[in-house]
Amino acid sequence: MRRTGTGHLLNSKKPMRELTLLGIGLAAGVAAGMFGIGGGLIIVPALLFLIGMKEKSAIGTSLAALIPPVGLLGAAEYYREGYIDIKYAALIALGIFIGAYFGAKLVLSLPDALIRRIYAFFLLAIAARMLIMGK
After folding, report:
1. DSSP labels for 17-34?
2. Which of 28, 84, 103, 108 has minimal Cβ neighbours within 10 Å of its Cβ?
3. 50-69, pLDDT tens digit by residue?
4. Residues 6+ apart with CB under 8 A from 41
5. Do residues 39 and 116 touch, judged by C-beta distance below 8 A?
């Protein structure tokens, strides 16, 4: 096991974490392809709830995954303060790259009203989870 710069322990014997990170990227990519969103709305809550990252590290890692060109300046500041896990960001970015294609293909086959309902439900589910998360 080794410790990353953000205090997270990585165990090279656990490929599940890498698959989870890739899945986060895929979900963000699908959402980006479907709704034009993905970064903070998908990646940050997933890193908080599924990976157990702290808020600043989740935000910084999300920005690093979305760097070109979305979060370059913000990610640089988080990196300077030690709140980015580069490996996590790279795996998420790979998932976004692939997932955006499938999200776009999927949403182009759906009626507009259904797209609006799916997106609204997703936003409500995230909001409810954030409200009950607590400290």
Report:
1. HHHHHHHHHHHHHHHHHH
2. 108
3. 999 988 888 888 888 887 66
4. 31, 123, 126
5. no
